[in-house]
Write a structure and sequence with these properties.
The chain is mostly beta strands and about 425 residues long. The chain contains 4 helices and 19 strands. The strands form 6 sheets. Strands 4-7-5-6 form a 4-stranded mixed beta sheet, with helices on one face. The N terminus is likely disordered.
Length: about 425
């Protein structure tokens, strides 16, 4: 008598048997049981193992998926898997595949090859809105319905429109909406079968892997607001948010925010934030409470500094100023004749003495003819001083001053000396 041995009872088989008994128990005894529809696998089969027969000596022979009823066999079906509508987490899109396609209509008039940029730019902005963390790279494809009649000019349109769009792109037509590395200047051309000529251009958007060439973006807030007068022992709460996400203004491929720190008048304030292996798309936040020392400086200058994880790193900074003492007493006399504002005098940079890799960025401004200067030492490179200059220009006081008495308009008049 043939012996059937099952060396491994699959979980899938057990579940199927249990489901059969439960279904039978739930049926009414006065109804004829109806056959249940087969289970539908709504997903790909991930893997499947075959089974084998065994001979009289127990050796495995004839591997296959089915056997005659009287043939000894060894069954192994536990790795036959399918996805049964189980929700799966959506992975973060990474490098390479196309993630979106938008069609711009009306880029060309019927049978013409002159570029109408308005619908094209609208489609670009719509496509850019889908880019959250990593920057886009857009490929343009001209779509022309082809008329196969011998006299039709549509046979020449794909090439003509391709050339016209490439010329428009290379002439800087997209510079206002795209960075140079965010699109491919070579345009594709394809023929579609029949239909009206709608002047269509397909925009396909893929995420690409490239170098991180930009510093993190900073959002800096404080309680109280910058420009508020403070005194010794007052507390200033500063919140620093840094991001390398495309939607937050970072233009190149993100490496992630690695370091955040706050300095008060050039001295580091604890705590600092450091992430050894940052997630490229993760925003980082650091909140620091600073206590104004006694005696207080004339101006409390708080500077937020952030670095990314690129090699070499890129640094960005923003600053907040809080006046103290006499700086808070900008009294405008009623009889003031000459009034003025803070204004930029000169921006310059020079190599640090004894170094060819570091430069000193000098921001010079004045109020009512009184000169001031702020300096920051950075690595020598193109545009390294610009962010410092921009932040200092934005932080200049917006108040109006009385040049008759500045900077002593709020100070009490000295008492007259007694006569001898």
């Amino acid at each position: 008598m043939g012996l059937r041995r099952t060396l491994l009872i699959p979980v899938v088989l057990s579940l199927a048997v249990a489901a059969t008994f439960l279904g039978a128990a739930a049926s009414s005894p006065f109804q004829t049981p109806q056959p249940k529809p087969p289970v539908e696998a709504r997903g790909p089969i991930i893997a499947m193992d075959i089974a084998s027969s065994i001979d009289a000596k127990g050796q495995i022979v004839n591997p296959t998926f089915t056997f005659p009823p009287n043939e000894p066999e060894v069954a192994d079906i536990i790795t036959a898997k399918a996805v049964f509508n189980t929700p799966q987490p959506t992975p973060t899109p990474q490098i390479g595949p196309v993630t979106a396609i938008i069609t711009a209509k009306g880029v060309f008039e019927a049978d013409l090859n002159e570029v109408n940029p308005k619908p094209l730019i609208a489609a670009i902005n719509q496509l850019k809105a889908t880019a959250k963390c990593r920057p886009p790279r857009i490929t343009f494809t001209v779509e022309v319905p082809i008329d196969l009649s011998p006299t039709s000019i549509s046979l020449e349109l794909p090439g003509a429109r391709k050339e016209a769009l490439e010329q428009y792109i290379r002439s800087g037509g997209l510079n206002a909406v795209l960075e140079p590395e965010q699109y491919k200047p070579d345009v594709r051309a394809e023929n579609s079968s029949g239909g009206p000529d709608l002047g269509m251009v397909d925009l396909s958007f893929e995420q690409f892997n490239d170098q991180d060439r930009d510093p993190p973006q900073i959002k800096l807030t404080s309680k109280p607001d910058a420009g508020t007068c403070v005194d010794a022992d007052d507390q200033i709460q500063v919140t620093i948010r840094a991001s390398e996400r495309y939607e937050d203004g970072h233009k190149s491929w993100p490496s992630g925010v690695q370091m955040i720190q706050l300095k008060a008048n050039g001295v580091e304030v604890e705590p600092t934030g450091f992430w050894r292996t940052p997630q490229p798309c993760e925003r980082q936040t650091l909140t620091v409470t600073y206590k104004v020392p006694s005696p207080a400086p004339s101006v409390v200058h708080l500077e937020a500094i952030v670095d990314d994880a690129a090699n070499p790193t890129h640094e960005n900074s923003k600053s907040l100023d809080f006046p103290t003492g006499t700086q808070c007493k900008n009294v405008m006399p009623k009889n003031c004749k000459y009034k003025g504002y803070a204004g930029v005098d000169m921006l310059d940079a020079a190599l640090v003495p004894g170094s060819s890799s570091m430069v000193s960025c000098n921001f010079r401004w004045s109020v009512c003819g009184n000169p001031y200067i702020k300096t920051k030492v950075v690595k020598n490179g193109s545009g390294q001083c610009k962010s410092f200059f921009d932040s200092e220009r934005a932080a200049l006081p917006k108040d109006q001053y009385c040049c008759d008495c500045y900077p002593k308009c709020g100070e009490p008049k000295p008492k007259p000396k007694p006569r001898r």
